[in-house]
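Hi support team,

I'm opening this ticket because the web form for multi-chain structure prediction keeps timing out on my end. I have pasted the exact lines I submitted so you can reproduce it. The total is 822 residues across two entries, so I didn't expect it to be a heavy job. Is there a limit I'm missing, or should I split the entries? Thanks in advance, R.K.
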Amino acid sequence: MSAADAVAVVLVVGVTLYAWTGIADFGAGFWDFVGGGRRRGERPRALIDSAIGTVWEANHVWLIFCIVVCWTAFGRAFASIMTTLYIPLTLAALGIVLRGSSFAFRKNAARARQRHIAGWVFGIGSLVTPFFLGATVGALLAGRVPEGVAAGNRVTSWWNPTSVLVGLLAVALGAFLAAVYLVVEANHRGERGLHDYFRIRAIAAGVVAVLVGIAAVVALRADDRRMYERVTGRGLALLIVASVALVVTLVLLARRSTKVVRAGGALAVGALVWTWGVSQFPYLLPFDLTIDDGAGAAVTMRWILVWFLVALVTAVPALILLYVLGQRGEIAEEPAPPEAYTGPTGLVQ
Amino acid sequence: MTAMTWWLLASEPAQLVPARSQMAFTLGFHIILVPIGVALPTMMLIANYKGLRHSDPVALTLAQRWSHAAAVTFAVGAVTGTVLSFEMGLLWPGLTGIYGDVFGLPFQIEAISFMLEAILIAIYIYGWKRLRPWTHFWLGFPIPFVAIAGAFAVISANSWMNQPAGFTLGSDGRPTNIDPWGAIFNAALPYELPHFLLAAYMAAGFTVASIYVVGWLRGRRDRYHRLGILIPFTVAAIATPIQMSVGDTTARQVFHDQPVKFAAMEVVTETGSDQPEVFFGRYAGDTNTVSGGISIPGLNSILAGFSRDTVVHGLDSVDPADRPSNVTLVHWAFDIMVGIGTLLLGLSAWFAIAYWRRRDVPRARLFLWGATAAGVLSYMAIECGWIVTEVGRQPWIVYNTERTADAVTTSGNIWVTFGVIAAIYVAIGIGTIRVLRAMSRRWQREDADDASVPYGPPDAPGPELTAVGGDQP
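Hello R.K., no limit was hit. The queue was backed up. Here is the completed structure from your submission:
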């Protein structure tokens, strides 16, 4: 395995970490968005708020990490992707702006009306970003991004059945993963009502994800036979892992177990990301540009690997510390009875 | 318009102006948030240390409030920074596509620093009520260093664009013999980095102090406002004289490293010795002449090389197509930056003398008015300095190596995206100011709560929520 291959693996790992954290965060935004009117939605929204508040930024940085690694390691592929897919990627960036600014402002928005607006903004950002990032992956998978600045079709490269379905799959998987995390969170806090609330939604989102996923594979078969054969050939083992993990998680959820559902849900999502990576290997832009042809200087590749290790060695302990402190704080603080959440208004809270 | 400039305009890609406008706008917005994220944590820790060391609750209150303000601006900066990382590909595929593996590595360092700073800020805000005081302080202690590492990375990439290094151009026009460390530690880094860090400390220091000066002028002359002025103003007043010296060195280095940029900064039209120092004035590109302005004979040569005999390259030393697109803008920005720096140096000296004599904030109203304006002025200077370095480098995106026109995308209708982004950013700007003001009002009511800031611990249902509930029908 060359250093360039290893960097490609780092990118897939980065996308996996982003899917586990950032995409799930957008999924929480989805549940916030569809949570219903003020009274009905207030308790789930309070749980969502407190569960994802602190770590949004750290989740989000994995995307920035992937972007900068992509242009440092595979500049030609990066330039091709960003220019051919500028429409979905611009919209994804705008979604991140909306999501991130509501993170910055929402807790501070003192008045009901401001919170209401922040809730809408949060919700729209949460739908737009995973969809268009997913559509970007779909466009790559379907081989619609040729090498060269703006070389591909600027609309059909992503507005086609495969890409749109992969975009919807990203939304569904984010919603699924978020609901699974929130089930555990609700259970941890002893909130029976919310436990069931998110349990049902996790199952629903998981079933939708399975259906959308099957549809995406069927669309890919019609779209790009070569890639379809890779996904169902060398990707098959991972696809089975993903399916089994998903089904087991759904069964556990149906049986009201919370034991390994987080790991199961994460494994399902991770295995799907890896299916994409394995199917595409060794192409950066199927079937136009390979990793070796698109890679930058070997010395840069080695340094990217070093800095990835630095990122793991420094950020992971800090994240664990934050998590441990957070858990300890919650145990120390008396959890408030749900009746105390009387205030909230609008879409938020 | 002469035939020549018309030809220049006609030959440049249609995307260039909107792409440069969008980049300028988004970067110019982001750069407002950066000094707070880089320098405010230091002041917060100074106040924290002072509060713990001398059992001073007022200093601790300041530290806590500054940590909350830092969190808001840091969170907004995360968003605007993300847009910039997208724009590196959406707008400038010719830069990242060709030179990505030469200059891209620092951005990875930046991403790591950024993540660490986000986590550490979250821990710090979380820890105010939950950790032992000194443990809390020491967990916050790395934040300024992580912030400096992030600034180092971004400034390294920018200084590389000014003094490209770490590669040789192959026969196919692509870089070979790549040495990422040579690119990171390029010739412009040693002056760009201290120049920017000092600017960040000045801007953050003067801005934070100015907020308390306003309160002071309104008669709130308590210990809270006094410390709120003294800590940040001292930091800024220490940084200012160093900055004047570093800035002077920087200008002289630019004179050596980027003679055309220097010619634009000082609006030198023709190469020669005994160059006058021209303040303001208007540059006419088609005739390569300056009209108006105040001129001091020989001073420019003396400043650049300590002698009237120093030869300074003029804009005539290069083809009109290789001159910055807007010389007057670069020149005015440079003069305004230096002028503001000089004013702030005077203000810092005044503060130093008054503090040395009476150990207090100077009493004179003139000083207080100056200190009120100092925050905005230091930000104007930062924007001007950024215009000097970016517009002054044109028409190159990588100095003397790649033209901005060759790096710009061919995709999309950038005026549309620029319009949308501008509208959203205006909303974000208004939102940031309103949120900070709302925090300030809450502080005046003395009901600050960690849960109400980004990175803060999970919401505990408290008075704030029930207050909101009061709005319900």
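A quick check on our side: Residues 330-349 of chain A have pLDDT under 50 and may be disordered. Let us know if the file doesn't open in your viewer.
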